[in-house]
Design a protein that fits this description.
heterodimer, A: mainly alpha, Four Helix Bundle (Hemerythrin (Met), subunit A), 77% helix, B: two-stranded antiparallel ribbon, two-stranded antiparallel ribbon
Chain lengths: 166, 385
């Protein structure tokens, strides 16, 4: 059951990831493929007992960030206009393909050598409580630093937007 | 053991869905008619039998199914077909984490009235709800219609804005209950606290003074977090896009907004999605703020214990279960009525008003609420120690 689900989600994730780069003519199709890819990834996280991470993946990435992508696509009204312009640059395409193939090869080699069975985790792993405890005890400094970084980002965004309004 | 649990919960799930959504179309018409001094739906009849207009939902369904299902030229066919489903399915599956009652032992079975008691309960509803955004957003875009596009852009902006406030308003409640599970919240809300207990802790009154123990208040979410209750309700109603937050539909400006190009049952699915979401909102608020399935000052454990000598253990549990479901549904119905009251009392907000309410009022207030709640928890811990 678990293995079957793993294959379903993996094929979905990889297939829709290819769809993101493959659908050159429609940015909308690319963005929607990205959503499917992220949902499939969330499924994989849940299979790996990281339920909270999977849920946040759905909520933040699929449910908010890609919605913003779609929002921009709609505002600019990019409707199959071929605005990507990748067709006209064969050298770039070739370089991209070679790099991608190399990366895939190394990744596959590494993963194949580290083949492991399904994780055997104890009760309560991946729950909200466990993640909260880990974040606020062992990794509290990282959380604080991330918070400060995000705050700086928000302030920067406000300053930039305000300049435009003024 | 586990199967009986799921079957009872799924039965309630189906009951709520199938019974509430159609009847709500009737309730909505009747209530708006009452509020506007009209009679309301009373024309549909079977052989002259009108049943107060209760046949109207049936007539609606027949009308919607038999209508022509048009697909405009230049539409994205797949997305145009899929959007209504993306909009309505999340609303339906949100019910999975709603507890209609506690857990009961009867005839050797362990019955829990919650389909999926997930560890991250409420977050599941938020995550599923954020997927529902696509259903409305893609609808306007896929129809190849400029009014639809405007509706889509409004929908996406509004739903993203209120999702932020939605999550943050209830953080205070999570902090107090220390859980995201709706079932655990329900159990905790059965407890009471002594209204004047702080006098004893601060030493103003001697320990064990009788009258202090008499005045108790149930630990309902709305008592502990009164302002977030209304902020959460506001954010949820904005997410649901019904009046007064229906700028994405805005009949007077953009005709019907994002679902302008839908006809027949696909249009019906959008309507159904909205009504189901009204029930979801009510159920969620009931479970989190209004004590869920519990009756104030009457905790379930002692109640079952008191009934056991009279009815026997199995029947006592069954009685408690039936009572719990009814209490839950009564609270849900009251909240549905309240939402309809708001819908028919308020005119539509202007678009900038919707945005201002979300970003400039709800968000700062909910952030302040987190700080104040944290302080409150610390003070209570200090005093009661």
């Amino acid at each position: 059951m678990r293995t079957a689900l793993f294959w379903i989600f993996s094929v979905m994730a990889v297939g829709s990831a290819l769809g993101v780069v493959g659908s050159l003519r429609s940015p909308m199709n690319s963005a929607l493929s990205l959503v499917v890819s992220m949902l499939a990834l969330a499924g994989l996280y849940v299979l790996l007992e990281a339920q909270f991470v999977g849920l946040i993946q759905v909520m933040v990435y699929a449910g908010a960030i890609v919605v913003l992508f779609l929002f921009v696509i709609m505002l600019l009204n990019l409707r199959g206009s071929g605005a990507v312009g990748a067709e006209s640059q064969p050298i770039m395409k070739a370089i991209g393909a070679i790099v991608a193939a190399g990366a895939t090869f190394w990744l596959a080699r590494t993963l194949a050598s580290a083949r492991a069975p399904w994780p055997d985790v104890d009760e309560g792993f991946g729950t909200t409580r466990a993640i909260g405890e880990a974040l606020y005890t062992d990794y509290v400094l990282s959380v604080q630093v991330a918070g400060v970084l995000l705050l700086a980002g928000i302030v920067a965004a406000v300053v930039l937007a305000k300049k435009k309004i003024d | 053991m586990a199967t009986s649990t799921v079957w009872v919960a799924i039965f309630l799930f189906a009951l709520v869905l199938l019974a509430f959504a159609p009847i709500m179309t009737w309730v909505e018409r009747k209530q708006s008619a009452l509020m506007q001094d009209r009679i309301g739906a009373n024309r549909a009849s079977i052989l002259g039998f009108k049943a107060l207009g209760l046949i109207h939902p049936l007539a609606d369904v027949i009308k919607m199914i038999t209508k022509e299902d048009t697909v405009p030229t230049g539409a994205h066919r797949l997305l145009h077909f899929a959007s209504p489903f993306i909009a309505v399915v999340p609303a339906i599956i949100s019910f999975a984490v709603i507890p209609y009652g506690g857990t009961y032992e009867m005839w050797g079975a362990h019955v829990s009235l919650c389909v999926a008691d997930l560890d991250y309960g409420v977050l599941y509803v938020f995550a599923i709800g954020s997927i529902a955004t696509y259903g409305s957003m893609l609808a306007g875009w896929a129809g190849n219609n400029n009014f639809g596009m405007l509706g889509s852009i409004r929908v996406s902006a509004q739903m993203i804005s209120y999702e932020v406030a939605l999550g943050i308003t209830v953080v205070g409640l999570f902090m107090i209950f220390g859980t995201l599970k709706l079932t655990e919240m329900g159990v905790m809300q059965q407890e009471t606290f002594r209204l004047f207990g702080f006098l004893e802790h601060l030493g103003f009154v001697a320990h064990g003074t009788g009258w202090i123990d008499w005045v108790t208040i149930p630990m309902w979410g709305i008592v502990l977090q009164p302002l977030p209750f209304f902020m959460f309700l506001t954010a949820l109603m904005a997410e649901n896009k019904r009046a007064p937050f229906d700028t994405p539909e805005g009949e007077s400006e953009i005709v019907a907004g994002y679902f302008i190009e839908y006809s027949g049952m696909k249009f019906g699915l959008y309507m159904m999605g909205e009504w189901i979401e009204v029930v979801v909102i009510s159920a969620l608020l009931t479970a989190m703020f209004l004590g869920g399935w519990t009756i104030p000052w009457l905790p379930e454990g002692p109640m079952i214990a008191a009934l056991t000598p009279v009815l026997g253990e199995n029947m006592a549990n069954l009685a408690a279960m039936v009572l719990a479901v009814h209490v839950f549904l009564i609270k849900v119905v009251i909240l549905i009525w309240f939402q309809m009251l708001i819908r028919w009392s308020m005119p539509r907000f202007r678009y900038d008003q919707v945005m201002n309410l979300g970003w400039k009022i709800l968000l700062p207030l909910s952030l302040a609420n987190i700080v104040i709640t944290a302080l409150g928890i610390l003070i209570v811990q200090e005093v009661t120690r």
